[in-house]
Amino acid sequence: MEGLEEKLQVLSISRRSRSQNRTYVLDVALQPSGLLAVSCSDFTVRLHSKETLSLVAEQHGHKGALCGVRFSRTSPHLLYSGSADGTVRVWDVREAAAAEEVQLFRSDPSHVYCSFDLNAGGTLLCAGTEKVDDEDSFLVFWDVRRPGAAPLGVYSESHSDDVTQVRFHPVDGNRLATGSTDGLVNVFDLSRGAEDDALLATCNSDSSAGAICWCGADYARLLCLSHDEGLHLWDLQQLHTDQPLTVFSTRDARSLAGALQGSLDYLVGGAWLEEAGKLLVVGGQSGEQSGEQSGERLHLLECDGEGLRLLGSLRGGHTSTVRCFSWDAAQEALVTGGEDGQLLLWTAGGGGEEGRKESAKSRSALSLKSRPHKKHSYHREKKPGGKCPNARSDDF
User: Fold this and answer.
1) For residues 100 and 122, is the Cβ–Cβ distance under 8 A?
2) What pLDDT score does 148 carry?
3) pLDDT 10s digits, 160-179
């Protein structure tokens, strides 16, 4: 995609959808055609038209905070949603009016899920749990081809606190990255089976890992954004060389003034734009800090070995902290959601909605879900024996 910077600079609001009860929009997932799904702070999953943002349906099955939504890439009519209620539910969006999920996955009653993902082949589901009984947290695996079956197994030794992120490699269905409030980002090759054998690398974010993104040529790099606005970019191709894994690292991206002139207050997330060959990082500046009556300012940034470079800024949209985004490569459009309950579609020549929007008081971007971050010593002795059986190699 040539001229990415020029295209991002002319984005403006094309469509706007606002929740009537002002619930936070926490996560967004795009179906290849037709729909987009969002998870909300009132425990609902909402389906919207991708073109008009009109509400198509709502799903009310969950009883706890949602930790994300994902469409299956192999069966795009299946939408997965995970929750702190200890379930991952699967919805058939072809039956938008259906009141119940078509599949449900759960594990031990003590497990509270705070992240999940589905692998590229659409066969393997993994959920990360909160820390259980002051012990370890767990990665739980299921074969989605066996609905209602018990989990294949768990990994239980690699993280010592809440698993905040689970991200499968976009192409290799056996490659998995996980992040935690213990500060560690782990990379696994599940084809190797048992946890000790599967663990390929452990990277230290020096803080609580907040977002993970596979990126780079052949998706060989890994981006980690921490809950306190740190940013780390690692090159996993260097695992078996003497070269350092770290491509770029900063404990506080807000300190990288440059073209931003200190106007970055928080990071939202990252996305690899494959056609452009660029890593997009979205950050924000609160309306109170920017002095803009129109609300939040969104910064679209390119991240590489040199750090962050400003590609463009968006104004006049959200009135409170932006929590999620997704780039629609087919339409060259950006979808954003935030704590103001709004879902926005940004396109080139989208109409440029402007004007003062109703302000919304915002809590911290973590206050809905997270406990106060605890600093850890990131090295601990492995406990002999473990607490749960590891997933077997023949399970994967």
Assistant:
1) no
2) 82
3) 999 999 999 999 999 999 99
- Residue 2 in this model has a pLDDT that exceeds 60: no
pLDDT score of 389 more than 60: no
User: Taking a C-beta distance cutoff of 8 angstroms, is the pair 198, 192 a contact?
Assistant: yes
Decide: 52 and 76 in contact? Cβ < 8 Å.
no
* Cβ-based burial of 83 (10 A; exposed 0-12, middle 13-18, buried ≥19): buried
Tally of structural domains, the chain: 1
What's the first-to-final CA gap in the chain, in angstroms? 36
Structure tokens at 256: 């990288």
What whole-number distance in Å separates Cα of residue 218 and Cα of residue 202? 20
Q: Is residue 361 part of a domain?
A: no
The structure's pTM equals 0.86
Which CATH number fits the domain that encloses residue 202?
2.130.10.10
The whole-chain average pLDDT of the chain stands at 86
Quick count: other Cβ atoms within 10 Å of Cβ 46?
22
| CA pair distance 261, 340, nearest whole angstrom | 26
Does a structural domain hold residue 360? no
For residue 165, list its beta bridge partners.
179
> Would the CA dihedral through 152, 153, 158, 163 be positive or negative?
positive
